[in-house]
Design brief:
346 residues; alpha+beta; phage-related protein like fold; six-stranded mixed beta sheet; four-stranded antiparallel beta sheet; 7 helices; 16 strands; flat
Length: 346
Amino acid sequence: MALGYVTAGDLAQALLPMHMRGDALAQTMQDKPMLKWWESKKKAFAGGLNFQITEPVQGAFMSDTTTLQGYSQDDQLNFGQAMNIQRTSFYGKEHNYGLIITWTELKQDGITIDDKQAVRRHSDKELFVLTDVLKNRMADFAESYARGKARLFFLDGSQDPKAMAGFKSIIQDTNNVGTVGGINKAAYPWWQNRANLALVPSGESQNLCRFFQTELRNLRLFGGRPDAAFCGQDFLNALEMEIRAKGVYTQEGFTKDETNDFGQGSISLKGLGKFVWEPMLDQLSESKRCYILDSRRIKLRPMEDEDDKTLTPVRPYNYLVFLHNITWTGAITCQQLNANGVYALA
């Protein structure tokens, strides 16, 4: 029998929608492989005037201008001078990421906080709270900071004069123009990164595969040991296409379910390692690019004790708020450009 209007209205007042408890499930979190790589290879510096970091480099040698001389008897001998040391110069920058939460928000979430940053969750909180607001805010803050940092490391510094110049200020498309670390690339050809932005993939000719076999030798020519390759999705797709074009999936035909998998494993190059998809390149509209880096020669340099330093500032006397921030001071430096390269599909 159908329910009457009065009964149905009573049920609507007595029942609540089905709300699932738990943490908010993030829908847009991505891997950050290059950020993890930078962090795993970083080397701290102590500080100094203007956070300047310098390193000695040498590309020219006395043999460039003085030859090994044969002589006999009292022939006049030639002498040269070995004065070829130069220094790179990079500057660290200071960064801050801050979070503010009002005490009202926290109280509505069943949380009490005091000026000593002590947090108490009320005993009956679970009766009305579906998702822990403070926990969610802090998780959001941490992920947002990681995203900002990952993006910062990619940029060239032109977006903010007070922000650190990322690795694109060092590994440049025009590898023979401008200065890097205070050294003129046009004047010193040895101070140039590798670059090729006109690669054309071909399943038949295997252009990318053949190119990188040769290019790896060039990257290693002067003692480089590149150990990371980060690609946008289009670039990785092109590599997979070439590998697929010359490979076979199965020796069993199409008769067995377990042998008809059309998936493909990771692509790697002996002496370099895996070509890794870096989603940040796609976000920056650079999905056709690939960067090959040598972790011994290009490094993340955070300042000692200023690497992701967390703070909980005292609130202003006239605002009932909770404050939390992270500060970071550092730079990306390079000691050998010709061991690193940038590549892109035409």
